[in-house]
Structure formats: C-alpha cells, structure tokens
Amino acid sequence: MTDVRGTEVRVPTEDGAADAYLARPADGAPRPAVLVFTDAFGLRPAVRDAADRVARAGYTVLVPNLFHRRGPAPVVELPAFIDAEARGELFARLRPALRELTPRRATADAGAYLRWLAERPEAADGPVALTGYCMGAGLALRAAGAFPDRVAAVAGFHGGRLATDDPDSPHLAAPRITAEVYLGHADEDPSLPPEQIERLEGALTDAGVRHRCEVYPGAAHGFTQPDTASYDEKADERHQAALLDLLERTFPPGAST
Question: Which one is catalytic: 109, 189, 232, 236?
Fold first, then answer.
C-alpha cells in the first residue's frame, strides 16, 4: 500500500489565499493531479480521509476550502456526525457563504487552483481531473467548461441543481467541455429530479461529450459522506470504483512521471 503525505497549503486567488489540503504519495514523484470540489460542509476530516484514499491510488489531490473568503475551514463549527436535525441548522448558517460563492467567483477560484497545481512539483505535467460532491458537482462541470485545455476528466456525485432554468445552470457548460464525464446521481434526491437528469444527459449528448450518467438505486443525496446521516456504504464503494476507473482511463500507467 502506497504511503501518503498530507499537508495543509495555501493557494493564492484573486480574493486572497485559500486554505487547502494536499495529499500525494510520499515518494515525492510527480503524479497526475485531481482537484476536488467539496460539498457545502467543506474541508473536514472525512474529506481529508477521502483525499488520502485517492492519493494512495497514485494521484496528487488538492482539496481547497471553497468558502475561503469567510475564513479557514470549517467556516462554521461542524459536529462530528451531521444528522438530519443538524443538517438544516448548518445550512442556515452556511447560506451567506453559499450566496457569496457566485459562479463567477467559483470559476475564478478554479482557475487559481489549476494554475497552482501546474506549478507544483508533486503534480505531473498535463491536464488534471476534477471531482465534485453535492454542490461541488456543478462547480466541477462549470470549471471543465471554463478550462477545457486543463481538464481531462470530470466526475460528479450526488450533484444537485445541475440542469435548471437558471442562466448559469451547470449543464449549459456542456458545449465547452472536452473532458470525459462520469456522473453518479442519487436515486432519492429532490435537488436533482428525473427531468433534470434527462436535460443534463441530453446536453452532454448534444455537445458530443464522452459521458456516462448512472443513478444509484436507493441512495440519498450525500451518499458518499461517511460523517453524515445520508451515507450509504454500498453506494460509496460504487462511487470509489467509478472514480478510480475514470482516473485510470484518463491517466494510464506511465502517465505519473
């Protein structure tokens, strides 16, 4: 099993430095980079553990604090386990930060994270992969459309509001995406009803994007997050396998140095 080194880093953005977590194999060799967009609860121990797991498979993984304008992560105090009752209260406290992270700011930040990775010796030359969770799935799709030359693969899991009538809906990025896309949807997710899934897949198909969209039966929104009541171990294992499969196709053996 590959030893992993995790460090706290700071990434310059146009609105100040973002705190972030960088995980990579301990041997120090340059590895293909993966940029992670978290859910609304942000950078926390469970997310660092997930980044370590991907790094252990042979990748350099950057997980920024998406709400860095509000201060270091976590920007609100989080319980060790987020149950249904805590979830509503936390979202109420996070609402100002969510509103502050506009599509323009999120895209500018994504560009900063990609530039930082391009300059890091731990990251191999060439394009990177993106993966996003909950709100992060939409951020990943928008980033892939904004920086097509820098992004080779995009994965999103239990994303919400991915194909709405909003003028900046994530599905509208499809014509600019050149990366391969994998999306694992939650079956029981009011934030992504069947009509949005159909609209999203139609946009990707019409744009000629290589993609696969799958609905995970019985899984709730947030099924990959082990520190929440939404966690589904079986669906999480499926997500891990799908993500690593996408990464291995994107960065075949020999691409890490």
Answer: 189
